[in-house]
Structure formats: structure tokens, C-alpha cells
Amino acid sequence: MNTSFLSRTPFNLDARAISWVETTYRALSLEEKVGQLFNFLSRGTDPDELERLARLRPGGMTRYFGSDGEAERARIAEAQRAVPVPLLVSADLEGSRMSLPFGTQVPNPLALAAIDDLDVTSEVSRIIAEEAAFIGVNWSFAPVIDINRAFRSSIVATRSFGSDLDTIHRHALTHLEVLQKHGIAATAKHWPGEGYDDRDQHLVTTINPLPMEEWDATFGRLYRAAIEAGVLSIMSAHIALPAFVRSQLPDPGVEAFRPASISKLLNIELLRGRLGFNGLIVSDASEMAGLTSWCRMRAAKSQIIANGCDMILFSRAPEEDMAEVGQAVENGSLPVERLEDAVLRVLALKASLGLHDATRPRPAGAMARASDKAVADAALRRAPTLVKDTIGLLPINPQSHRRVLVISGGIVSPLHGTPGEFKLPAMLTAEGFEVTVHQQQPLVDPTDFDLVLYLLGEETLLTRGRIFLDWAKLGADFVGAMRRYWHDIPTAIISFGYPYYLYDAPRAPVYINAYSTLDEMQAAVVDLLRGRSPWNRSSPVDPYCGLEDARY
């Protein structure tokens, strides 16, 4: 058993922790070793979940949280008591609608990039870490270090720190370091780098098209920096890097497009060998079509481990999937040495977080402290960006703009059911405006309104191929799709998420990017519309999408 890597960065285990890893590994049966490779999805209050955890003994679980923080804290504690080897408990702690629902609502990465203040990013990261640790989360699938270059990408969108490499570098490393300082393992993702393909890994294997020299200067730089900073884990995604494969194989054919999650060349040769990463490699969700369009869902599980990942994210049929991985070990398609290395790294991550120490006290603290909410609200008010106001509309007031027509399809999220309603119209009403809300563009008499506001609420959308300003949906019919008001009524488009709608409305006279659909962000925008605070004029991406006419 080779355990020489355990004392090296990023695990940095002492003799006692190494002994725990070695002793625990030797005590595991083959089935239990296979179990350590799996990270289950956990949601709700499934009464069979605790029994399933006790029986299958996975290495970890990713929790989708309900609204009751104390109940979630108790649920995670119950899950830990159900298993003999402590669980890695993970979550996508990315801010905005991915904030803990019972915790402080904080900005997402793109909003933090717009603010571009490392003290703010550090404080937001601290809030995320302390609240997560308090309920029992010990592993975050963040920071996202993708580069927001393909503006049509619905999967990168608001999850990245923008398109500027230096900005991503500064803020991602700050987030990483603060998380790990507070006992939360950070995860740099999505290896080998997303953002130049405008498609979604949930639907298709995406391609990183960069030649290796350019990849090395961009994504290579970011991953090296994360590794040097001691990041404990990296998520290997369903993204191909053809340039590297072609540099290794004379005529790779379709192999050039193999997703990283099952690519030995990308995980072992490039990430471990050339970049020197010694931590844990976790796959992205193993049932996304970016992987299952390449190979059978069940066969993918053992391929994930055989090709360099150490943990498999999610399983719809864990008994069958675990049996398949066990069979792969027995028939040699998953080498015993690779199984051993993967399990040891899972245990090493647990030990590096102190999970092997039963006397370690649970983190103290509280959820959604008033002081933290004040910090988050102040940050949210600095994020909204006034991209353009070509008609001198702002600020608005009830005297000049009393009758407001709001057009909005609501707040759209595939993770949260039917579209939610914006609070902003009610906030304007409380300010003395008369607000009329329509989901679709009505045919109006220009004398009936003093202001038109389009409120768009789409942050990053999983499993949706594109985000765009759907004029046909807004217009309800062929004629309505072509209707524009801004020549007769002052009009503003406000995006609480996706920052690229000027591509579909380049002649819109007023355009605002607010990055996040949180109620607190809507309140911040109302304050800014009313002139009570100065607008941010810094964009973390090109909101004009390269279109010169969109600037005017």
C-alpha cells in the first residue's frame, strides 16, 4: 500500500492521521472500499435514506437543502451516525440562488467579479464557510474557475468570476483559501476548463478548443495557481481537450473528444503528472449526458475510477452501480492499484478535514446572523452595473415616471420548479409608483404609461441549451414579437442574472445587469433606480457581446 503521498500538499497529514487512513483502509472489505468511491445525492426527508447509508456505506453525500436549517443540521448529524467511516458532506456553495436557503443570501461569483473587491469576496466566502460548517457541510464544489468567453453559454453565465483572467485568479483563490481556512474543502472546477463552448455538459460533451500553448496560459495558469494554493479537490468534468490528446496520440480520432471525467490522459497525465496535483479528483455528476452520450451510464462508473477520478458523483441505482464497480475490480478492468489509490485519497481528504478525530468539536456559530446579513446586503448593493443609459432616464421618480409597465416571465430556475415572481414591482408600488405587471407585451397606448421595465430573471440554467431574450414568448404571437416601446415610452431592460441580453436587444436605450435574482438584489436595484446610491459601471464580462451598435 503506497501512502507516501499522504504527508504531501494538499493533504499534509501527520503521523496520527496517516495511521488512521492506513488502519481504516485495511479494515474495509472490497464492497466497503467501493462504497467509499461514491458520493450520494441527498434531498428531502426520505425515511429510507439513513438505512441506505448504513447498508451501503458511501464515502460521501451531496445535500440539497430544505428551508429549515436546524432540521438540516440534525439530518446531517444523523447521517454521520449511520456510517462507520465519516462522510464527506458536500454542496454547491456558489451564492445567489445556490446560497443555503435558511442562511445568508450572498452574491454569486459574477456579482463578486463586478464588485471586484477582494475584501468583499473574502467576507462573503467567510459567511458561506461558517454557515456550511455549522450545519455539518465539510466540502464545497467551488470555486468555479471557468472563463466566461462564450456569451451564449447558459451553464457558465453567472457561476464564473467573469472573462478577465486576472479577476478570476484573484477572486477564485480568495474564495478557495477562505473556505479551507474554515475547514471546508474547496473544489476547483470544471477541469480541464469550460467557457469557450456555449453548450451545456448536462446535455452534451463540451469541447475546450484551445491549443495547448493558449490553454497553458489561461486554464493551465488558473489550475496551477489553485494547486499551489493547496486546493484539496478538483472536479473533472465532461469536457474534452482535443489539443492535449492529439499531442499524446498520433491519430486519436474520436478519442480526442473523450470527456475528462473518463480520460486517463487528462486526469493522470496532465492534471496529476504535469500540473502536479496530489489531492482528490471528483467526477462531475456521473449521469449528465455529457458522459452518458459517450458511454453507458452504468459502465461509466468504473471508467470514472479507472481513468483517474477518485470519487463518483451521484448514482440513481447505487446497489447496481457499486456491484458493477466491484465486478470491474474482480475482472481487472479496474486495476486494484487504482482502486487502492482512489480510496486512500478519499480517506485522506476526510483526515485532512479532521473527520478522523472523534473528539473534534462541531463548529460553533449560528445561521443567518444579522451582522452577516448586513455584510451581504452591502455587497449586493455594490454589484448592479449600469451598462448604458442613452436617454438620461435615471434616476426615476413617481412624479415623472408614475405609471410603470413591467413585463417579465418571472424568475426561472430548473432547480426550483415553476417561475417565481419578482418582488421589485411591489417595492416600486411602495415607493409611490403605479405598477402594471404583464407576462407578455400588451398592445398599449403610449399615453397610458410613463416607463416600461423588462425584468429578466435567468441565472445559470442547467439543462437549458441557451438563454436569450425570447421576443416571441414575450410577444405571445408573431406580431407581438416585433413590438418595441422605447421610441414612445422610456424603457429599461434589467437582467437579474444572464448578462448578455443586449445581443438580442442592442437598441435598448437603458440596460442594467444585476447578476442575481435574490430579493435583496432587487431591493438594491430599486435604491439605485431611485438615485439613492451610485451605480457600478464596471462589467466583469463584455455585455455588448462584441457588437459595436449595442453600445449606443
Short descriptors:
globular; about 550 residues; 16 strands; 20 helices; Rossmann fold; eight-stranded parallel β-sheet; TIM Barrel; alpha/beta; six-stranded mixed β-sheet; about 35% helix
Can you offer a commentary on this structure?
- With 552 residues, this protein is of the alpha/beta class.
- It has two domains: 8-352, TIM Barrel; 381-551, Rossmann fold (3-Layer(aba) Sandwich), CATH 3.40.50.
- Helix content is 36%, strand content 14%.
- The protein is built from 20 helices and 16 strands.
- The chain has helices spanning 15-27, 30-36, 49-56, 69-81, 109-115, 118-135, 165-181, 212-217, 219-228, 242-248, 264-274, 289-292, 297-306, 318-331, 336-352, 370-380, 424-430, 471-475, 478-481, 519-529; strands at residues 38-43, 60-64, 88-91, 139-140, 187-191, 206-207, 233-236, 239-240, 280-285, 311-313, 385-389, 403-412, 434-438, 451-458, 491-495, 510-513.
- It has an eight-stranded parallel β-sheet. The chain has a six-stranded mixed β-sheet with strand order 11-16-15-14-12-13.
- Helix 17 links the parallel strand 12 and strand 13 (434-438).
- It starts with 14 loop residues before the first helix and ends in a 23-residue tail after the last helix.
- 50% of the residues are buried.
